[in-house]
Amino acid sequence: MIAAQELQTDFHYSHEADTQLSSDTDLEDPESRNAKPGKGKKGKKAPSEKVKGAGVRAQGRVNGHHQENGTENLSLFEIVKLGKSATQSVVDDWIESYKSERDMALLELINFFIQCSGCKGAVSSEMFRHMQNSEIIRKMTEEFDEDSGDYPLTMSGPVWKKFKWGFCEFIVVLVRQCQYSIIYDEYMMDTVISLLTGLSDSQVRAFRHTSTLAAMKLMTALVNVALNLSINMDNTQRQYEAERSKSLGKRANDRLELLLQKRKELQENQDEIENMMNAIFKGVFVHRYRDAIAEIRAICIEEIGVWMKMYSDAFLNDSYLKYVGWTMHDKQGEVRLKCLTALQGLYHNRELNTRLELFTSRFKDRIVSMALDKEYDVAVQAIKLLTLILQSSDEVLTAEDCESVYHLVYSAHRPIAMASGEFLYKKLFSHRGPEEDGLPRRGRQCRNANLIKTTVFFFLESELHEHGAYLVDSMWECGADLLKDWETMISLLLDETFPGEEALTDRQETALIEIMLCAVRQACECHPPIGRGTGKRVMTAKEKKTQLDDRTKITEIFAVALPLLLTKYSVDAEKVTNLLQLPQYFDLEIYTTGRLEKHLEALLRQIREVVEKHTDTDVLEACSMTFHALCNEEFTIFNRVDIARSQLLDEQVDKFHRLLEDFLQEGEEQDEDDAYQVSSTLKRITAFHNAHDLTKWDLFTSNYKLLNTGLQNGDMPEQIVIHALQCTHYVILWNLAKVSEGTSKKGDLVTLRKQMRAFCLMCQRYLSSLSTAVKEQAFTILCDALMIFSHQIVASGREVLEPLVFSPDSSLQSDLLNFILDHVFIDQDDDNSTGKPKITTHSHSLLMRCLSLQYYNDYGDIIKETMSKTRQIDKIQCAKTLILSLQQLFNEMLSELGCNFDRSSSSFCGIKELARRFSLTFGLDQLKTREAIAMLHKDGIEFAFKEPSPQGEGGPPLNLAFLDILSEFSSKLLRQDRKTVHMYLERFMTFQMSLQREDCWLPLISYRNSLQAGADDDTLSVISGVSRGSARSKKNKMASTGKRRLPEGVFESSCSSSDAGAWMTREQGVQQTPVMMSSPHMTSTVLRDAKKLRPDEGYVGVYTMSNDPQHTPLQQTTQVAWMVTQRQQEERANLQNAKMRSHMQHAIRRSAGLMEDDEEPIVEDVMMSSEQRLEDLNEGMDFDTMDIDLPPSKNRRERSELKPDYFDPASIMDDSNGLIILHFKDCN
């Protein structure tokens, strides 16, 4: 595929040579300036001709249209940026200019690429004539504007997003319009490719990014031209053979000669295109697909996918697929995503599957593992790719591979779940055998019956029964017709089995009912289950119609079937609970319009029987919610349902009063049967009171009497007390609702106030109960009551409710706090296998206690959510609370370990780790938390110096070690705030403290260093790794040197506005593009000798540091102050030197270009760590690459199979020198 010789920065095409490129040719050819435009040697016109050409261009164009009277021209960059002109008209105008004066037109095109990179400089005609490519690029690098790190391709906003599209479109249209003549003149394309190759090897990220995008789009356009040439060659060959097959008398020899000449011209053009594509591929792609910048790598992978899909005969082979396979291990999700989308375009075409077999076998495991990618978008596309692979062949993916995708249908991330659901559906439900063609469409024997059973079996095997809604939601898009076949589901539950059929087990029937309920809910609510959506979206008109149709169908089917199902499963609590939720989704009008009243009566009878049979809370609440759904005053069935509900509740309340009176008269000799009857009846009433207003039965008096008796005797069964507390709570809430709505009587407000306060006192007394369950119930109700009857109750114009405001007294606060301490943050009993602390509920007002380090791991989610809410209310007070909690923990540690504790102890490290976690909760937006962080540091500094030294004068303050904890928050300070905090710190420091270097003073030293680190860092410029801290001198012509100012000293005193700053100069060798020299599968720690490196292989730029630091003038106050300052400067300089050496050594070990500050390995570390694993992977494989060789005409001969060119990552290892490079050989 690719020749062994690497591409130089400057080159030209030799028409006589095959694909080798010269390295000493630049933008001009002085020896052939007078050559004619067109095919042949390239050349440029004399200066006099340029002037004449400039006169022709004086008329120019504005926005792609010709302008007369010498109107000032807009540059190509400005035209493309404005986007107001048709791209084709802009290109046509440029072509006309090129035909009249190609040098000036080409110069304009060169400046177009320079300006699109964000460079303010421009290539002059003089530079164009006399300077080499590398010299021009170096000159443009010097003139690059470093005031901002942005350039057109990275700028935000609609204008720049449109610019990127226009930029790519311009290149494609340019090649398309020039494909018949200009691109073959060996001048325009030679110059453009040479320029783009040189820019793509630049140290300037903007140049590299822009030129790579341009080169890849240029390559795509050339591939399209090559494809058209191939088609034309096939057509010409077919015409030639047809003419030649004629008899001698009818054969036209002139036509044969014309066809032969045309075929020869097409072949020559194809050879030219091959040379151009080889130059771009070897000069740009093979270097930039492993660039240090993820965006550049993504561009390369995206475009190679386009080439393979567009011209599969030439590019869809192992020589090109291997680049995609290697890059699937890229560290950045953006690049991995491009790999998967590129492969999807290939696997989608089933005709190409045979060419992908070897690639699939080698990289299938990696694709399967990417289904669990940490980037959700990557995981989604990986699953979609696996679905395409599954459709191409059932034998490729093993059962283990499929199972790794199956369980993702329960993922909380909906796109992943939907993709997994589609994979599951394609695998298990899409196959249809010939024996199924004659099956009925509905009923127990239909095809869907077996598929529904398969769904049930899968659901049970997953052992995640509570996630039925997630399974249904995952399969809803692809399997809605199956999940909406409720008739078949009912038939499987009610009909008798036919001979030879295996009946569903009880467990399978339970699962089927749950899936059926989830499908009904999904059809009626049209939104994903909880935890799998960002909120309700606006439905389209089509979706609304589908929802109404489904709801009508559900009502018509289940209105008849539900009473029968309840009759069959009336004793099974789990089945009944699910079945009773179905009426919530009915269209109740259909009971009347469909004449289904008798089925409604049957349903009400079944619900009544269920209430009388069951005492399970879930079943009773389901019955209550069913009555609540049916009792809708808007429908005519309301009176009938209301009567049935009233009769049921009358019986239960009368029974409760009768049983309660007998039960209380028994005294201490209570019968267990009577207690059970009271408990079960009260449980039914409580379940209904949750959704229905039962205040007319005066349940407060009976329940209060029951609770009071329990306190007096102390032997009341806990279940009775729990339900009595809950029922009384509902009574108060219903009364509050009536008072709030204004539907109550005159004295109801006073009565409610008395009842509420009496009930709260009752709950407070039950906090001292012997039963833990009773105490938990009382605590929960008290917390709810304190929230409901707080001062917020009078908001929104409800001042009339002010008498109901209830504030807890000190006694109640103490009891609630004691409950927290005794029952929330405690260890489990020994018989509990979980081994975690137990939590029953939590109070939002107990933030301080919740921040205990001991329970952070167990209740971290609750703590972080509480902290988030408190931060939204008041950021500063939240920060004060955090620092106060750390101070309390620090004081507790001092009381336990003493003042001479070890800072490496687990207690101190634990507090520091908690501080680190607190720091992470402030997020990345430093402006929003600026005041809070500053206040946190202020309080922390004051605490550290609050207590004097226990060792007497001259010793460190007692709490000085707290500064080590406080340093965890230094990274959250803005640069300018670090100076302010540092000045505040110096107010508490004495002169002697600044001189101390003992271990006990290390917290102060480390905290000061954390405030100084990055205080004067400057924003990185677009020149990667070069800071714009100091302005570039116009006299300095050395483009290979970038100066960066290291942090100044920030020790400022009240008597000096500026202090000494240590300035260091760091020189960087700008010699080669930052590029990941390590292969995608291996990481080399061997650095090649610099003198052995070839320019086209890339090498490491090395930092060199000046030995003469520059010092700014000092404003001296005293000789002693000057000495202190000088010592500080020397210490900081030494520290910076050490850091610089460390960074340099680390970079050398990585064997990568050092010019990129944000460079990261493009491969995951876990990829391939074993040489033996590499050998196993590549056994029997050949990895030689070849030049781009377009396939010959298919009509001349059958296309021979390409020699397999496999994916051996080890083949890119050059053992001769130990440096990992791409190694290319000609393929036989």
Automatic annotation (TrEMBL):
The keyword Transport does not apply. Keywords: Cell cycle, Cell division, Chromosome, Chromosome partition, Coiled coil, Nucleus. One of its GO terms (molecular function) is chromatin binding. InterPro entries: ARM-type_fold, Cohesin_Scc3/SA, HEAT_SCC3-SA, SCD, STAG. Pfam families: HEAT_SCC3-SA, SCD, STAG. GO terms for biological process: cell division; chromosome segregation; sister chromatid cohesion. Its main location: nucleus. Residues 1-68, 1031-1053, 1182-1201 are annotated as: Disordered. It is found in: Nucleus; Chromosome; Chromosome, Centromere. It comes from the Eukaryota. Part of the cohesin complex which is composed of a heterodimer between a SMC1 protein (SMC1A or SMC1B) and SMC3, which are attached via their hinge domain, and RAD21 which link them at their heads, and one STAG protein. Component of cohesin complex, a complex required for the cohesion of sister chromatids after DNA replication. The cohesin complex apparently forms a large proteinaceous ring within which sister chromatids can be trapped. At anaphase, the complex is cleaved and dissociates from chromatin, allowing sister chromatids to segregate. Belongs to the SCC3 family. This is Cohesin subunit SA. It comes from Electrophorus electricus (Electric eel).
